[in-house]
Design goal:
This protein is α/β, with parallel strands linked by helices. Among the domains are: 136 residues, 3-Layer(aba) Sandwich (Rossmann fold); 153 residues, NAD(P)-binding Rossmann-like Domain (Rossmann fold, 3-Layer(aba) Sandwich), CATH 3.40.50. It has 13 helices and twelve strands. The strands form two sheets. A seven-stranded mixed β-sheet has the order 9-8-7-6-10-11-12, sandwiched between helices. It has a five-stranded mixed β-sheet with strand order 1-2-4-3-5.
């Protein structure tokens, strides 16, 4: 079972069963509230027209407006976007921010498109989903292959259509138009706090602990930088083009410079080159998958040698792989907890936009750390109490919170 939507629903069903959730809530929460599919016609630089397919899924809005990123990728599908929107509902609930879950995407290959083409595609997509987004309805953010610039185009298009400035319609904006200090690094920083929390909980020292990272985009780079500074040794990193490995440790600053310059981690000199997916199978204390879904499946889970997997990506481990890892005694720190730093600082950004009052970087990271610590403690507490895995505990905690909001609100009509 590798379809992300089947995985998301199965995870939900398992957790709902363990919680003994009422039947009507089970039926309601296992489906998305609303999904919009749009055609996005774009005039390409050579004068031709291409029509891309775009999606926006709002899984649940019981606790607040839908919240979640928009990704540009050739493999985007309806099932993927809907699954990711359900995971966003749980992620927001785990860190207890007052948002529901949403996700969007356009099936396209931005790596072969010009900046102008990406801008026109972004603006037309925004126009097509205009009716269902907004600061009180659904707030997009960056995700795979989208960044602060894409958010600025969405904010501008939405504001032009609205006849006024609406910074709170997206988060992850550039600082000059209402972005938050610390948003760019927030997901990676959340992963970092989660790993610190884990070793504190295990009463283990972090000095010299080894880490491999699959994916060296925004999340992987920021997590690596912070972890290296604290004494962790990053011994292997991959990106879509290949992997590098050096048991003595990689120099993350140098590696980031190379990645920015040539786009390939394999241009880093002082390391052995490996085929891309081999990074998953190297021996390390912690493996951080920070690329796409379903990186670890029943076909390769058996080869994993890391002791702990901290999911920085959304949905990197399939259900079958999860059981194999459990049997092997590998601890998985789940995505909806570990990768929640981004959406937490998105919440801060949205708050700052409403108040038109901006916080310092220090204020942002202190508040982020406090929220990540509380979420970690709550998940661990529930896992111990119910004798379940961290993933099950995180899902149970989240589903309980969302179910309680749905229950109070009742069913319309
Ligand atoms: N795309 C990020 C995620 O998957 C951030 C979402 C947000 O900030 O709304 O968590």
């Amino acid at each position: 079972m590798e379809n992300p939507w089947e995985i998301a629903q199965k995870q939900f069903d398992n957790a709902a069963e363990k919680l003994g959730l009422q039947e009507w809530l089970r039926l309601k929460l296992r489906e998305p509230r609303r999904v919009l599919i749009v055609s996005v016609p774009v005039r390409m630089d050579d004068g031709s027209l291409q029509v891309f397919t775009g999606y926006r899924s709002q899984h649940n809005t019981a606790r607040g407006p839908a919240k979640g990123g928009i990704r540009y990728h050739p493999d985007v599908t309806l099932d993927e976007v809907v699954a990711l929107s359900m995971w966003m509902t749980w992620k927001c609930a785990v860190v207890n921010v007052p948002f529901g879950g949403g996700k969007g995407g356009i099936r396209c290959n931005p790596k072969t498109m010009s900046v102008g083409e990406i801008e026109r595609m972004t603006r037309r997509y925004t126009a097509e989903i205009f009716d269902i987004i907004g600061p009180e309805k659904d707030i997009p953010a960056p995700d795979v292959n989208t960044d602060a610039q894409v958010m600025a185009w969405i904010m501008d298009t939405y504001s032009v259509f609205s006849g006024r400035n609406v910074p709170g319609v997206v988060t992850g904006k550039p600082l000059d138009i209402g972005g938050s200090a610390g948003r760019d690094e927030a997901t990676g920083r959340g992963v970092y706090y989660t790993i610190l929390n884990y070793f504190k909980y295990k009463k283990e020292s972090i000095e010299g602990k080894t880490i491999t990272i699959q994916g060296f985009g925004n999340v992987g780079q920021h997590a690596a930088t912070l972890l290296e500074k604290d004494g962790f040794k990053i011994i292997g990193v991959s990106d879509s083009t290949g992997a590098i490995y050096n048991p003595a440790g990689l120099n993350i600053n140098e590696l980031k410079e190379i990645k920015t310059k040539t786009k390939k981690v394999t241009d880093y000199k002082d390391a052995e080159k490996l085929p891309r997916d081999e990074i998953l199978f190297e021996k390390a204390d912690i493996l951080i998958p920070s690329a796409l879904e379903a990186a670890i499946t029943k076909d390769n889970a058996d080869k994993i040698k890391a002791r702990v997997i901290c999911e920085a990506a959304n949905g990197p481990i399939t259900i079958d792989a999860d059981s194999i890892l459990r049997e092997k005694g590998i601890t998985v720190i789940p995505d909806i907890l570990a990768s929640a730093g981004g959406v937490t600082v998105s919440y801060f950004e949205w708050l700052q936009n409403i108040q038109s009052f901006y916080w310092t970087h220090q204020q942002v990271i202190e508040k982020l750390e406090a929220i990540m610590n509380t979420a970690f403690d709550s998940v661990v507490h529930l896992a111990e109490e119910k004798k379940v895995t961290l993933r099950e505990a995180a899902l149970m905690l989240a589903i309980l919170r969302v179910a309680e909001s749905s229950r109070c609100r009742g069913l319309y009509p």
